[in-house]
Request: fold
Amino acid sequence: MSLVRERRHQEPLTLSIPPPLYIRIAGVPSPPSFSLSSSSASPDSSSPVETLNDLEKLTVLGRGTGGTVYKTRHRRTKTLYALKLLRSNDLNATAVETDILKRIESSFIVKCYAVFVNSSYLCYVMELMEKGSLHEALLARQGFPEPVISSLAYRVLQGLRYLQEMRIVHGDIKPSNLLINEKGEVKIADFGASRIVAGGDDYGSSGTCAYMSPERVDPEKWGFGKVGFAGDVWSLGVVVLECYLGRYPLTKPGDKPDWAALICAICCNEEVEIPASCSPEFRDFVGKCLEKDWRKRVTVEELLLHSFVINRL
Ligand SMILES: Nc1ncnc2c1ncn2[C@@H]1O[C@H](COP(=O)(O)OP(=O)(O)OP(=O)(O)O)[C@@H](O)[C@H]1O
Reply:
């Protein structure tokens, strides 16, 4: 955790905010900037961020594979935002993510207020999630009690239900993409691996291997089909079990979770071990999420009615 704190608070701010030079991407209005939406849920809906120069950088919140996330403050309104700077070498993928973000308006999903694009960077102005990611919370706490996991699962399921209604597969549900705000509410973030399914088959394969479902890791074995939404349910199952155990649950403690070990754990191992100490409701909930055959796996709608979730509301 000390490493995480160090990363979050002490990292030097070496990356300067790109100059406000804008290019047009498919389906997105261009220069000089655009706001995706303004809503009453916005901390500052009457005065959205108009240019990147409106924001001053405060600290680094974290780094992902593609870029860095900063805590920023609007110079005039003093509203705090998270600013994610991503190197943008794939504008097609970017257009999908931006299109998805434009459509989303849910209290279970991290709000994106504006997107700025230049030739090197994509800049997302997002709702600040003060308590960081579930990944960091897990490093600090090493597991959560079931009531906490139940309310977390409920919020993620509500977010997934919203996305499914929009025909959006998230594709990368994992602890570092679940962010926590000041009130302790969990929201889904990061649509870099997402896709919009038009009702046909879904062959999406980007995402993070450790949280990928068997049918995404080995589609030939488990069969192609309308698997995207079921894949998000599997990932949720891995996340909630990780929340209970305080460690990645599909490999043995101490095992090096390299690619081969992960593939084996996801696709070959007979059944995922669920500890005897957990409640029958939790065991049933996790077992249903981690059903290897996506055709038999529980749906988001069914999980929202599961006793593990509704008994604790
Ligand atoms: N809106 C936000 N508010 C507060 N902190 C954030 C926000 N978005 C991201 N972060 C922090 O920045 C970190 C990096 O986020 P980012 O989305 O770039 O990568 P990641 O999801 O951790 O990893 P990757 O995308 O490479 O798989 C997160 O783990 C989180 O700690």
